[in-house]
UniProtKB/TrEMBL annotation:
<comment type="similarity">
    <text>Belongs to the small GTPase superfamily. Rab family.</text>
</comment>
<dbReference type="InterPro" id="IPR050227">
    <property type="entry name" value="Rab"/>
</dbReference>
<dbReference type="GO" id="GO:0005525">
    <property type="term" value="F:GTP binding"/>
</dbReference>
<keyword id="KW-0472">Membrane</keyword>
<dbReference type="GO" id="GO:0015031">
    <property type="term" value="P:protein transport"/>
</dbReference>
<protein>
    <recommendedName>
        <fullName>Ras-related protein RABC2a-like</fullName>
    </recommendedName>
</protein>
<keyword id="KW-1003">Cell membrane</keyword>
<dbReference type="GO" id="GO:0003924">
    <property type="term" value="F:GTPase activity"/>
</dbReference>
<keyword id="KW-0449">Lipoprotein</keyword>
<dbReference type="InterPro" id="IPR027417">
    <property type="entry name" value="P-loop_NTPase"/>
</dbReference>
<comment type="function">
    <text>Intracellular vesicle trafficking and protein transport.</text>
</comment>
<dbReference type="InterPro" id="IPR005225">
    <property type="entry name" value="Small_GTP-bd"/>
</dbReference>
<dbReference type="InterPro" id="IPR001806">
    <property type="entry name" value="Small_GTPase"/>
</dbReference>
<keyword id="KW-0653">Protein transport</keyword>
<keyword id="KW-0547">Nucleotide-binding</keyword>
<keyword id="KW-0342">GTP-binding</keyword>
<keyword id="KW-0813">Transport</keyword>
Length: 211
């Protein structure tokens, strides 16, 4: 699997991936770490933000639109509509803050049930900040058990050291491509986009923000 960030209108499949979870678990950092390979200090997300990543998997060129939602409760109602049409959802928590893990059951999995319109959507639990091992408050076994309960994929990673960051996005993408209905959606999205580009003046957008 090879990857690049930036602009290109030439791709075979287009997928939408959404990151959810409590504030400051590192959702934006995971995205930036994956997209640009760098680690920066990031301000809290206001509303919703998205970034694009181009990947090649086998002979397919993929466009991933990765939506970053605000974890802060005051933005919750703003983010609910962004679940629509997602082929992949990452439920993120911070392995050093136990409440961010318990909120996956209390809050975030309920939001997914309520708002996710795609029954076949692939979900992944991601425990972030494993570089802070001495402060760990959630064990790997607990993460695995919850992922099993939710029927999700599972990864632990660090946006800071980039440990497992590429792997978790790549594994999620791979699993999406293994679901025939999602694969079909991915190619329909590309066709729709080509039609739209023919009808509207060309605008190139690598990232954006909605609130
Ligand atoms: N040590 C460590 N710090 C991290 C890691 N990932 C993120 N951080 C830090 O955690 C803080 C919050 O990161 P964000 O990426 O803004 O978190 P978020 O989940 O997007 O937060 P909201 O936008 O409020 O929902 C920042 O200070 C990051 O630098 C990590 O893997 N390890």
């Amino acid at each position: 699997m090879s990857s690049s960030s930036g602009q290109s209108s030439s791709y075979d499949l287009s997928f939408k991936i959404l990151l959810i979870g409590d504030s400051a678990v590192g959702k934006s950092s995971l995205i930036v770490s994956f997209i640009s390979g760098s680690v920066e200090d990031i301000a809290p997300t206001i509303g919703v933000d998205f970034k694009l990543k181009l990947l090649t998997v086998g002979d397919k060129r993929l466009k991933l639109t990765i939506w970053d939602t605000a974890g802060q409760e005051r933005f919750r109602t703003l983010t609910s509509s962004y679940y629509r049409g997602a082929q992949g959802i990452i439920l993120a928590y911070d392995v050093t803050r136990r409440e961010t893990f318990t909120n996956l059951s209390e809050v975030w999995s309920k939001e997914v049930e309520l708002y996710s319109t795609n029954q076949d959507c692939v979900k992944m639990l991601v425990g972030n900040k494993v570089d802070r091992e001495s402060e760990r408050a959630v064990s790997t076994e607990e993460g695995l058990a919850l992922a099993k309960e939710f029927g999700c994929l599972f990864f632990e990673c660090s946006a800071k050291t980039r440990e497992n960051v590429d792997k978790c996005f790549e594994e999620l993408t791979q699993k999406i491509m293994e679901v025939p209905s999602l694969l079909e959606e991915g190619s329909i999205l590309v066709k729709r986009n080509i039609l739209k580009q023919r009808q509207e003046p060309q605008t190139s957008q690598d990232s954006g923000c909605c609130f």
